[in-house]
Amino acid sequence: MLDLIKKKRNGGVHSPDEINEIIDGFVFGHIPDYQVAAWLMAVYFNGLNDQETAYLTDAMMRSGDLIDLSSIPGIKIDKHSTGGVGDKTTLVLGPLVAAAGVPIAKMSGRGLGHTGGTLDKLESIPGFNVDMTAEHFCDLVKKHGIAICSQNSRLVPADKKLYALRDVTGTVDNISLIASSVMSKKLACGADGIVIDLKIGDGAFIKTIEDASKLAEIMLATAKNMGRKLVAVVTDMEEPLGYAIGNSLEVIEAIHTLQGKGPDDLTELCLELGAQMMVLGGKADGAASAKKQLRALLENGKAFEKFVELVKIQGGNIQYALHTGHFKKATYKFEFKATFSGFVKHLNAMEIGLASVKLGAGRETKESAIDHSAGIELIKKVGDTIIEGDVLAVLHCNNEKLFVNALEHMQKAYTFSTEKPEETPLIKTIFA
Ligand code: URA
From residue 307, how far is each of 87, 258, 277, 386, 393 by CA, in Å? Predict the structure, then answer.
């Protein structure tokens, strides 16, 4: 391993055997974390070329079980977000698209860096179980049209271990590492079609449209090679999505969205991604007719019914879905107020994500426990008018001392102006 670290440090190119050696050695515990951490940093600075990225994706995909969904009738569609702040899209999209008849077999991850994870959010519903065998996962999708499971130790174990190590070594935001992480999971999970929500902006791992295009290109090529369909929708992550950040706060916002009462940005994103999933899944001719069908499912209660069914079949207490007042509330609340009159000019999603981690909603190390009730409720977002003293956001926390650390990030997050800022589109472009 030392030779391989030096090779990458000196700008060398790995062979497929070398990549397999690193991944197998790491997964089986022959190569320690500290050596893989050093290799990741060498990759971060010197990169992997397209061939090495393909080898890495393949080695990671084959590090565990490959799920065979062929016994489930229909075109199975998966969705993945490259990670954002307040991104509770899967909680809405899964049941919404399943209600439209597209089988959803979804393997999700945990929080990474300043971004939250679907599994952590779902686990704020008492009893909700995300660990299951591949057989049980398939059975649920066959019977109910939906299941959301964790990439447990049998599914892409290489990504589980690498993801956790990257999170604590500053090596998350590298295009090849992101592409191999996302695609190894999506390919192992066996769906026929994949919709990627590729986030760009302050709160995302990808900051520019050029990097987003490159990442989309790598993912499209990988999917094509493996005989799968893929669409990458590039979406804005300058400011957080919706108003809730933090696990149970986000579940509550997702429930409202499934009941047709969600924030405009989250609803718009779910309709766009959902429409792409329906078209890939052969349930609609085009995005416009798909969106019409999806909007009807939000309005007639069918999407929310599917969410309640999902909670029930995965062992969660459905009372939490039916009456969101059951969710445990944080002991302390702190109002963050405006010191300026005018408009919110910018709201930095990364700073908001970091503030919520400081409050206990995310992980600072891979062993950190999540506080499900901690988080941030935004009251004002970009373009909103404010008067000095208005509450901009409410911080939720179970340890008063944590507010001080979060405050520093909140102060950096909001910037103001006397003129209304221009609106930026949520959906930037689509690669197919
Ligand atoms: N999402 C993933 O699944 N992997 C990454 O590396 C980044 C975002």
Answer: 17, 8, 17, 36, 28
